[in-house]
Amino acid sequence: MSDKLRVGILGGTGMVGQRFISLLENHPWFEVTTIAASERSAGKRYEDAIGSRWKMLRPMPEAVKDIVVMNVNEVEKVAESVDFVFSAVDMTKEEIRAIEDAYAKAETPVVSNNSAHRWTPDVPMVVPEINPQHMEVIEFQKKRLGTERGFVAVKPNCSIQSYAPVLTAWKEFEPYEVVATTYQAISGAGKTFKDWPEMLGNIIPYIGGEEEKSEKEPLRLWGEIKDGVIVPAQSPVITCQCIRVPVLNGHTAAVFVKFRKKPTKEELIEKLVTFRGAPQKLNLPSAPKQFIQYMEEDNRPQVQLDVDYENGMGVSIGRLRKDTVYDWKFVGLSHNTVRGAAGGAILCAELLKSRGYIAKK
Predict the structure, then answer these.
(1) pLDDT by residue (tens digit) across 228-255?
(2) Which of 142, 145, 160, 269 would be 164's cystine partner, CB 3.0–4.6 Å?
(3) What is the radius of gyration, based on Cα positions, of the chain?
């Protein structure tokens, strides 16, 4: 019997579910043994359930093709077959909260890509390099749920990955006001150009709910645990615009920052390139060796050249320069479906395993 933990993918037929399956191929700790989806896919071989809808550039892993898809709503049946699950279900927020809680109460840890539980006070929302200490709130959540090993943990929105790590690296300089405009890839909407041909040569200046997430979620990452819940930070104040652009993968951000303490350019760059977190110190399987790279060229980072930096798990920063209104400005780039979605959730699960929250049943 394999020493690897048995993993289930809830919502395994969607784009993020496919990304989970692709990234978990040959993972040293985790093995996909169960795929669950809607009733219309249940009972089919995974390859047949997907049909022509495989959206990854890499071929579908051979190991999952013959897995018979289970009904995601048959919680006990799915839970019995796995040690923990990744959640990428496509439902209403209320339905997602209910089903993720149901799996947790079935003593099955849930690591979710969804937004439904991001503001549940005792659910940790984690970027492992930024706030691994928030995982300690899980013990309070277990008491609320009445579980011994079941809980829900989530990762934040994909749009903040290209600037929240940067602001974290610069924390000692006390950033207090931030303006960010994100230029977001169509895969963030679960689409390819084949699905969404009207995006070719087009820009849409609205992504529903995205601006509020981009402004508020970093503050929760920087918050503290008090009385068993996570209390968001109050600073910096962030204002965002989020724009959909004709790019397949990669969210770019143009960011302006004011600091209470006045750093030099050299100090800012030094903090970026030396920034390390728990994943790097623990040498977790999916952790980028260099989390943030700084690029000196005026025309970098670029999506086509840099989105796959550190296998899509790193963040690329460039064009750091003084501003006439704010103190400094920069451009950031992150891979929205790897670091920003499935890969970020896998890294969270690796950290949870390393800290004993996820183990064999």
Answers:
(1) 999 999 999 999 999 999 999 999 999 9
(2) 160
(3) 20
Structure tokens at 59: 């071929």
pLDDT tens-digit map of 292-308: 999 999 999 999 999 99
d(CA 274, CA 60): 36
120 CB contacts (<8 Å, ≥6 apart)?
Answer: 97, 152
Beta strands 110-112; 251-259: pairing state:
unpaired
Q: Are 169 and 229 in contact (CB under 8 A)?
A: no
CB 187 within 8 A of CB 337: yes
Q: Mind listing the pLDDT tens digit for each residue in 140-180? A: 999 999 999 999 999 999 999 999 999 999 999 999 999 99
Which DSSP category does 288 fall into? Answer: -
Helix, strand, coil percent values for the chain (each to nearest 5): 35, 25, 45
- Cα separation, 29 vs 121, in Å, equals 29
Query: Which residue segments constitute the domains of the chain, with CATH numbers given?
Result: 5-157+342-354 (3.40.50.720), 159-334 (3.30.360.10)
Q: How far is residue 334's CA from residue 306's CA, in Å, rounded to a whole number?
A: 9
